[in-house]
From TrEMBL:
Stretches that traverse the bilayer: none
Origin superkingdom: Bacteria
PROSITE patterns xref list: PROKAR_LIPOPROTEIN
Protein name in the entry: ABC-type Fe3+ transport system substrate-binding protein
Keywords, in A-Z order: Signal
Signal sequence segment: 1-29
Length: 390
């Protein structure tokens, strides 16, 4: 069963997952990001000169002006290869180059804030896994108001109309390298769930990502240290630290390390990252602990975008059905749940015998919004003090 089909069922009986309107306290002084470029393609509902209207949005994007601008730059924390592959579909459609900067959600956001204050804007669009950053940006008048024609196809509770739209819902998992662990080991990991990460058997071959990376990584650790603290809490983090895990400062190098067999098991792993490695043929499998932390990845346009017409056209395309489905059809295939109600879930590995879709999702941006933002700095500091400062 696809995650999309499962999502429609599970909404009636278990959802601790509600909207993404948040106020962010994330003024983290984190390191700046590096940048890389790319191009790509798909198909979108547009004429030669103007994007067409579909579901109640404003449409009217000037395609000729967008093509004249020639490129867009996306700041993201959702994986360089994945976003490049997705952007390649846009490039193929419109001939507009898509460049990508990615080094974790909070670091890349901090970089843009510094550029914004210096009056030297570079980013055109944001594709981020913590929409509370975007909510704060609306208050600070840092986002361009633009309503894509597919606006009405997105769930209102996840959307800030005219500003940001949630393109995917992404569950977090525990992953392993199936060439490095036995069948009995896999059975134990599935049975233990979170506790597999503190099993002494995996000392020296476990990896995790610091919550300071932001977005999905902070969401994972927020559950273990706050939402589920009665069961896990700081004692769990101390047990983990005793196993000397590899701590990555951003997610995707961790997935690369898992795929290469440098480490055998990884926690706080996004399905997007794991499925990207899977699509490349890596011996990577995963399971969803109970409850399964989940985050929503949202797209928005910077108020001072250097390429405003190209940015609008990308947002128009990204929120369309072809744009959503292009996320699943590139060289890096993802198993995130598409949020456009008309888009199909094109995940290819849900038929694998080892795969089981999540059934109990936990979204702290919804169930524990106030603490999620208020506890951010303290939680990250506490985690770093236990784990060794990263």
């Amino acid at each position: 069963m696809s995650l999309r089909k499962l999502a429609s069922r599970r909404a009636t009986h278990r959802r601790a997952v509600i909207g993404l309107t948040a106020v962010c306290s994330a003024a983290l002084a984190l390191s700046a990001c590096g940048s890389s470029g790319s191009s790509g393609s798909s198909n979108a509902g547009a004429s030669d000169n103007q994007a067409s209207s579909a579901s109640g949005g404003q449409s009217g994007v000037d395609i000729a002006a967008a093509k004249k601008e020639g490129s867009v730059l996306i700041y993201t924390g959702s994986g360089l290869d994945q976003v490049r592959s997705w952007g390649a579909a846009f490039t193929k459609k419109y001939g507009i180059k898509v460049n990508v900067v990615d080094k974790g959600t909070y670091p890349v956001w901090t970089q843009w804030q510094q550029e914004y204050r210096a009056g030297k804007p570079t980013a055109d669009l944001f594709y981020l896994s913590d929409s509370s950053l975007l909510t704060k940006a609306i208050t600070d008048k840092q986002l361009m108001k633009f309503t894509p024609s597919s606006s009405g196809d997105y769930p209102a509770k996840y959307t800030s109309p005219g500003y940001f739209y949630p393109l995917q819902e992404n569950p977090l998992a525990i992953g392993w390298n199936s060439s490095k662990v036995s069948a009995s080991d896999i059975a134990s990991i599935k049975k233990e769930g979170y506790n597999a990460l503190v099993n002494p058997k995996w000392k020296g071959v476990t990896s995790v990502v610091t919550p300071a990376s932001g977005g999905s990584d902070y969401t994972w650790w927020y559950y273990l240290m706050e939402g589920g603290k009665d069961k896990y809490g700081t004692d769990f983090i101390k047990k983990l630290a005793a196993l000397n895990p590899k701590v990555y400062t951003s997610s995707f190098p961790g997935y690369d390390g898992l795929a290469a067999g440098d480490y055998y098991i990884i926690g706080d792993a996004s399905t997007t990252g794991l499925s990207t490695e899977y699509a490349k043929g890596a011996p990577v499998q995963w399971m969803y602990p109970d409850p399964t932390p989940v985050f929503t990845v949202a797209s928005a346009i910077a108020v001072n975008a250097p390429h405003p017409n190209a940015a609008k056209l990308f947002q128009e395309w990204a929120t369309s059905v072809p744009g959503e489905e292009a996320w699943y059809s590139g060289s890096a295939v993802s198993d995130a749940i598409p949020m456009n109600s008309k888009a199909k879930d094109l995940s290819k590995f849900t038929k694998e015998s080892w795969y089981k879709a999540p059934t109990n999702l936990y979204n702290p941006l919804v169930s524990d919004l106030k603490n999620y933002t208020a506890k951010q700095n303290d939680l990250i500091s506490s985690w770093q003090s236990i784990m060794g400062g990263q």
